[in-house]
Request: fold
Amino acid sequence: MKRRLHQTPDRRTFLAGTAAVFGGLAAPALAQQSNVFEPQTEPSAGNEVRHNISSFRSLDWRPYFANLNKGAILVDTTSRALHYWSQGGDFYKLYPTSVPMSEDLTRRGRTSVVRKVDGPEWRPTPSMKKRNPEWPDFVPAGPENPLGTHALYLSWTYYRIHGTHDTRKIGRRSSNGCIGLYNEHISELFAHARVGTQVLLI
Reply:
């Protein structure tokens, strides 16, 4: 059996590969006026059609937090939605998200925003490199970066809420553990969230 020599893929090859791993077939539709996200579908094996995003509404999850000091973020991994409340609760937003592609990559519980980065750089985690040894060790900030335009780093090592340039990911189980948003949404959330904003993943 011949062994292939290791080659560092160019960025275009890397992006195509991550789109295949993380992405899907079409971007989900957002029902803007009613704050309702309609279920989307994608074809699967045979004649079946399966939902790629759950239907959900602007539910009031605030009782999950003792207070809204520095604001609060709740990520519902089942409905693939991120809820944000500003300090005092006078500003609320609901965003569709991507969530981890499998249960073993999904982490739930309480954490917080510990760092905010405009134009994040990206390095794969050791487990990502083990699963995908062909991936580059580093991708600078820019249009080819998997973290999109902005990132909120959490107190959990390697976990972030970030943007994505690949809009096909949103509404799907498509990430390696992080929570992804459209770039325009992470930009808005980035402007409101603070270091210290509490985060709950359920």
In short: The chain is about 15% helix and 30% strand.
